[in-house]
Amino acid sequence: MTIYFAGSISGGRGDQAIYQQIIDFLKQHGTVLTEHFGQSSLTSVGENLADRAIHDRDLAWLRKADVLVAEVTTPSLGVGYEIGRAVEWGKPVICLYRQLPERRLSGMIAGCAGITIHRYDDVGDLPAILRLSLTPDP
Amino acid sequence: MTIYFAGSISGGRGDQAIYQQIIDFLKQHGTVLTEHFGQSSLTSVGENLADRAIHDRDLAWLRKADVLVAEVTTPSLGVGYEIGRAVEWGKPVICLYRQLPERRLSGMIAGCAGITIHRYDDVGDLPAILRLSLTPDP
Questions:
Q1: Beta carbons of A50 and A68 less than 8 angstroms apart
Q2: pTM of the entire structure?
Q3: Closest chain A C-alpha to B23 CA, distance in angstroms
Q4: Cβ distance A29 to A135 under 8 Å?
Q5: Cα–chain-centroid distance for residue B96?
């Protein structure tokens, strides 16, 4: 199974340790095409690549992935954009969301029939959630 | 011309006065389907509607709009999602972005060939930008 993992870069480097843990969990289920999202060298201004190159590379990865797993606690234009494209392609989309005070998950994500949302409190909850989501039915 | 305007709700009520000004400018060019984005009664927890109803109503509006105009300074999952869907439909997408320190526009938005990006410093710059973008060539 190939997995495209998405998380906020520009707004969410504070979440980066969580992203790295999620990527480690995901690697137990398949190949993660976007491992660099968990790297601490990825700064809040993003990658040192031309925007068009980033876009086209990531879209090609997303297109070939079997599933999109997105951590959506920190709002991100890029993650939302990737979710929109993946939904349009009929690709399975799994969103992981930590409820924070004074925050609400976007109605456009929460209300989309093509998206499965898993709310979690602690990253330790995720292995079980991902196992149920990513293991094919027998 | 029908125009779908999108801006961050949950993260960006501080931008709401700017959104209202943009909507007022847009109304000089056509019908704005999402006028409520500029309303001060729209709080940071969003609308009092079921998520599925919000999603389906907004997607129906987006589908029938001639153009999507998105203010993308404040990161938003919902706005990114709408941009992704609109790009996939081949709909014109115009993004308005104020450069802020320590911030960079998502590479997925900046690098997408289907999106026109206008950077601005002051909301007073926008009438001229929108006139050039929204007036059909003679």
A1: no
A2: 0.92
A3: 21
A4: yes
A5: 8
